[in-house]
Amino acid sequence: QVQLVESGGGWVQPGGSLTLSCAASGTISNIRAWHWFRQPSGKRRVLVASISREGYTNYADSVAGRFTISSDNDKNTIYLQMNSLGLDDTAVYYCTLDSGEVYWGQGTQVTVSS
Question: Per residue in 76-91, pLDDT tens?
Answer without folding.
Answer: 999 999 999 999 999 9
